[in-house]
Amino acid sequence: MAVNYGPEMQFKLSYPDSGRVGTKHQSQERGQWSSKTEFLLAVAGQIIGLGNVWRFPYLCYKNGGGVFLIPYVVFLFACGIPLFLLETSLGQYTSQGSITCWRKICPLFEGLGYGNQVVVLYSSIYYIIILAWAFFYLFSSFSAELPWASCTNNWNTETCVEFDSLGSFSNLSILHNATSPVKEFWERRVLNITGTVYELGNMRWELALCLLLAWIICYFCVWKGVKSTGKVWMDAGTQIFYSYALCIGCLTAMGSYNKYNNNCYKDCVYLCLLNSGTSFVAGFAIFSVLGFMAYEQRTDISTVAESGPGLAFIAYPKAVAMMPIPQLWAICFFLMIILLGLDSEFVCLESMVTAITDMYPSFFLMGHRRKLFLLLICAGSFFIGLLMVTEGGLYIFQLFDYYACSGMTLLLFAILQSVCVGWVYGSHRLYDNIVDMIGYRPLTITQYCWKYITPVVCTATFVFSLVKFTPLKFNNTFEYPWWGYAIGWWFTLSSTLLVPLWMIYALLNSSGSLKQVCTLPDGMANSLLDDNVLAKRFVTKT
After folding, report:
1. Does residue 13 have a known ligand-binding role?
2. 344 labelled as ligand-binding?
3. Which domains does the chain carry?
4. CA angle 389-338-268, nearest 5°?
5. Is 478 helix (H, G, I), strand (E, B) or coil?
6. Is 45 marked as a binding-site residue?
């Protein structure tokens, strides 16, 4: 039913029922955090993940140790905290997920929400593969001798050489191509990896069962919703975006379950400092272990320092095998990896479900439809993920990691979010919205970050990343075939192109000017957010 606001222009965009926003009735149906602690723990679980353990310490080492902290801190205060506050406050103010929140403040930029959710979907599909590997290692740790500590297993080759207590390899002068038992366990026992990307190989059924276990745990932890759950600068920037879960809609989804008057400003500052502090502590812990390994092997730390899966499944298992009671240390380490990964996966799933549920609340909030939708996402993602637990699955995994969730994609979304809020919706308006919610004025520089500093820094980094871009090479040696790169670019473009495609759709299906399609007048914007009198169209005064 149309509501008359006086002289107005109606846009003929067809929107699903988005429910009432900001009302007590809708909040009860949609759900809210029972306490601030739940919100803080959920977001902390999302942002404190595997990147803190295996990415940040390696980037520090790779880029000069303490020198790396300079660009890291610059990105933290110029981009990390401002964008963290932007996304969380948007969710809290609109009480909407990452798609419908953009619809409420700027219809033209709704494509940002769709792009975010595509990235989250890709991330959920491949991120959980790491948990499957971790479960495999965890179960393998319950043995009299760690299976990656010796060369006496049936998967070991003649070139396998055990590391002895004196820090040397026997017959090293003869075995120029010697491999360690931990590397052979990873490549020949866990992955049984094929020789090239052209060979997908057989299904690794043990990994498939571990993957199924991970998805089952994720499903039952999320099904009731929130009630139960130079190059150095580019590296620093992408680490901030990865670690803080920026530009993928998760923070918006989590913030949307906050009470209206929750102090999101203070929460964001504390959570950001907690996350960075955790990265520093993890760096000390990881490099203490790697330093121990280098000392025992009488070698430089550069030979044992690795990033990503190489650190978690090769370097660190080798380290725990050298410790007293290695089984205990192995169990503790892989249990930590699983817990860090699971809570990040929970929030990604909740973000996707929240985004779609907020688009069709009258449908998904009835009966068990939300749970069935979650089951559909988990089942579909599981079957796609089976491709990555084949013998050639690691090649596909790296395509997902390099292209589907690339730093360039997140930087582009960050630029667009900053432009949308800073220049279209108005940084001063969002700033006033936050003041209305928390009751006092945050640092004024925040709105200048949204409008000037963040987009400039992100744009400079994005351009530099384009100039320095190199195609993915497996282990920095093997080049993918043309169709492999085509699949990778499909992953990238399938999320980023949704933004301009939606803009074109919105402009073609509206009868107003570009300015009218971009945003709503100040008074009416607040009216729509408070009362949501228009569920299926946007109305702008002429």
Report:
1. no
2. yes
3. 9-229+234-540 (1.10.4160)
4. 120
5. strand
6. yes
Decide: 344 and 45 in contact? Cβ < 8 Å.
Answer: yes
Question: In what helix (H) or strand (E) does residue 289 lie, and over which residues does it extend?
Answer: helix 264-296
> Binding site annotation covers 154?
no
**Which of 488, 475, 484 is CA-nearest to residue 310?**
475
- C-alpha–C-alpha distance, residues 451 and 424, integer Å: 10
Taking the model in full, what pTM does it have? Answer: 0.83
Helix, strand, coil fractions of the chain, as percent rounded to 5: 70, 5, 30
Amino acid at 390: T
Q: Is 243 annotated as a binding residue?
A: yes
CB-CB contact of 129 with 385 (8 Å): yes
Sequence letter at residue 329: W
**Environment class of 368 (CB within 10 Å of its CB; exposed 0-12, middle 13-18, buried 19+):** exposed
Residue 534's CB is within 10 A of a number of other CB atoms, namely 19
- Residues 279, 55: Cα–Cα separation, whole Å: 9
Partners of 163 in the β-ladder: 169
139 burial via Cβ count (<10 Å: 0-12, 13-18, 19+): middle
* 340 assigned ligand-binding residue: yes
CB atoms within 10 A of CB 126: 23
Six-digit token string for 476? 């920095």
- The answer on whether 358 is annotated among ligand-binding residues is no
Instruction: Identify whether the C-beta of residue 414 lies closer than 8 Å to the C-beta of residue 499.
Output: no
CA 83, 85, 89, 92 dihedral sign is: positive
**Whole-Å CA distances, 509 to 10, 103, 503:** 11, 15, 10
* Alpha helices (H) in 95-230, listed in sequence order: 100-105, 111-140, 181-184, 205-222
- What is the Cα–Cα distance from 455 to 443, expressed in whole angstroms? 18
Instruction: Report the relative pairing of strands 478-479 and 9-10 from DSSP bridges.
Output: unpaired
Half-sphere exposure (Cβ direction) of 428: Cα atoms closer than 13 Å: 1
Residue 305 neighbours by CB under 8 Å, 6+ apart = 58, 61, 287, 290, 311, 315
54's tokens: 């295996």
List, run by run, the mean pLDDT of 10-residue segments along the chain (542 residues).
35 42 46 80 84 78 76 89 93 89 88 93 92 95 91 88 55 59 90 86 94 93 63 66 80 87 90 88 78 71 66 81 89 90 87 89 82 93 95 91 86 93 91 91 92 93 88 82 92 94 88 68 49 37 30
